[in-house]
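In the previous lecture we treated proteins in isolation. Real proteins rarely work alone, and many bind small molecules. This record shows how such a complex is specified: first the sequence, then the SMILES for nicotinamide-adenine-dinucleotide.
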Amino acid sequence: MSGEAILVTGGAGFVGSHAVRELVDRGFRVVVADDLSLGHRAAVHPQATLAVLDLGDRAALARLFEAHGFFAVMHFASKSLVGESMAYPFRYLRDNVVNALNLVELCVEKGVKRFVLSSTANLFGEPDVMPIDEAARIEPGSPYGESKHLIERILLWADRIHDVRSACLRYFNAAGAHPDGSLGEDHQPETHLIPLVLDAAAGRRSHIEIFGSDYPTPDGTCIRDYIHVCDLAVAHALVLDLLGERSCRFNLGNGTGYSVREVIDAATRVTGKAIPVREGARRPGDPPALVAGSALIRKELGWSPRFADLETIVRHAWAWRQSHPQGYGDRATVA
Ligand SMILES: NC(=O)c1ccc[n+]([C@@H]2O[C@H](COP(=O)([O-])OP(=O)(O)OC[C@H]3O[C@@H](n4cnc5c(N)ncnc54)[C@H](O)[C@@H]3O)[C@@H](O)[C@H]2O)c1
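The predicted 3D structure, ligand included, written as tokens:
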């Protein structure tokens, strides 16, 4: 497989750029398709080819497939803000689903048989059984989650009718940064807890707000599953082999949940800074706990997180924040 060409959509974004790095390190030829609407040119590995294009431009995509003869597609590019999708449901459903459909159809037309999708834990909405395994009921919590569910369904038919094998990787909260400090998280606006807490530690924001401290959890704050972005990248590379045989759906997480307070405490220890906290009201639709059951991918692929411990995840994210205070430096910072 090494030496084959892989198309990575969204390879200039947070998770995609780490996957590109993993694929290049494993000897693949990587082509990134990204419109740079949210991603960063500087995040694209120097050995990868960058095609700046919108996935809505089917003709441009078709030319890319024609030029490179891809062995596999990894699809990260997406709109992925849950709150924004509640405000603009049809934009989310249309863009995410149509763009994926373009890609899947091109795979069928050009004979590409392996497809890896960045799916999401939002597929499961507010589940009542924890940890959340692959048997959990799918009841998307937002139009964003629904768009990923629809893409999973499209992939099911691509498998049944056209033998395109797909891996749907449902992740929880991607976090951390590459341990060598070359890649990290630079979202504008930032909505993820760990970078926001680190911004508060660095004095770039006045405080961190805890949305609800009366949940039925040990310290009253929400529990979430944080998975190191490099562990996600490894899982993406590992499924390529399995796709030679069959399609698969895996929930991907640390298996250990951490509360908002535990994240703040870990960030306090790692940074050595006091982090101002304000306790606010619960946000509608925030379940008390979301933790992945990743037993299946552990069993079937021998995958296990290398950086499972929260303090390591926060340490890598902090190292990136310190060495890149303006992120990749190509956009004005939005507080
Ligand atoms: N970050 C997380 O915690 C998380 C959790 C679960 C699932 N996911 C999924 O993982 C994927 C990557 O997430 P991320 O945090 O790296 O996102 P990101 O915003 O950092 O990266 C997305 C990339 O896709 C590009 N893009 C968006 N729309 C495009 C289009 N129409 N054409 C071409 N390029 C386009 C952006 O420019 C960006 O580089 C997404 O599909 C997301 O839904 C992320």
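Summary for your notes: Residues 10, 12-16, 34-39, 54-56, 76-78, 80, 99, 118, 120, 171, 173-174, 187 surround nicotinamide-adenine-dinucleotide (CB under 6 Å). The longest strand covers residues 114-120.
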